[in-house]
């Protein structure tokens, strides 16, 4: 497991989520934001894990509900993201965070606009391949006409919500399940699977 904190973690002890790495051999979370490079058969994929809750103003303002959000240095994280992507040399670059940049949801629009302003500008500058998130509890695949990035919302293993199409929606579905990401030198492929293991949509990138 390579976790990221979401809004629910920020309601409690976020440091405990990181500290659990010292207890479980399966749980690897060295910091609130970090990277992991996967390599197989000569193909490399860098995954950049973000800590998105402090980047969204509404959480920083709710100090009673999310007390640790305001304590995080957002500029330091964004500078780290800029530096990390500038120095990246892997075949594929995937960025992961809890909150969506683009998605259909009835949650506050400011969540997406904050992510667009603070994160998406950096991702577009460095032409990352995918941004993958959760938070919404359904599948969504969005390709904006003004961006080369595939924006992916991953579903939940529990309660799901019914999505609708927005500008740029390629696919949306309320199936519970999980996604599998595979790569070689020429293809990056994300299979969205339902609870029975059936592929309901494929996000495919080629070089």
Protein model, in words:
The two termini are 28 Å apart. The chain has helices spanning 14-19, 57-61, 74-87, 109-125; strands at 34-40, 43-49, 92-96, 130-133, 139-142, 150-153, 169-173, 177-183, 187-194, 199-206. Helix content is 20%, strand content 29%. It has a single domain (9-177), classed as Metallo-dependent phosphatases (Purple Acid Phosphatase, chain A, domain 2, 4-Layer Sandwich), CATH 3.60.21. Helix 3 (74-87) runs parallel beside helix 4 (109-125). The strands form 2 sheets. The chain has a 7-stranded mixed sheet, with helices on one face. Strands 8-9-10 form a 3-stranded antiparallel sheet, with no helix packed on it. It is an alpha/beta fold and 207 residues long.
Indicate the overall shape: globular
* Elements, N to C (H/E): HEEHHEHEEEEEEE
The end-to-end span amounts to 28 Å
In total, how many domains does the architecture comprise? 1
Query: What is the average of the pLDDT values?
Result: 97
Structural class: alpha/beta
CATH topology: the name is Purple Acid Phosphatase, chain A, domain 2
Q: What is the class in the CATH system?
A: Alpha Beta
Strand content: 25-35%
**How would you sum up the major sheet?**
7 strands, mixed
Q: Name the strands of the widest sheet in spatial order.
A: 1-2-3-4-6-5-7
| Fraction of residues in helix | 10-25%
CATH homologous superfamily (4th level) name:
Metallo-dependent phosphatases
Number of helices: 4
Q: Which CATH architecture?
A: 4-Layer Sandwich
Q: Determine Rg (CA atoms, Å).
A: 16 Å
Number of strands: 10
Q: Which segments are poorly predicted (pLDDT under 50) over 5 or more consecutive residues?
A: none
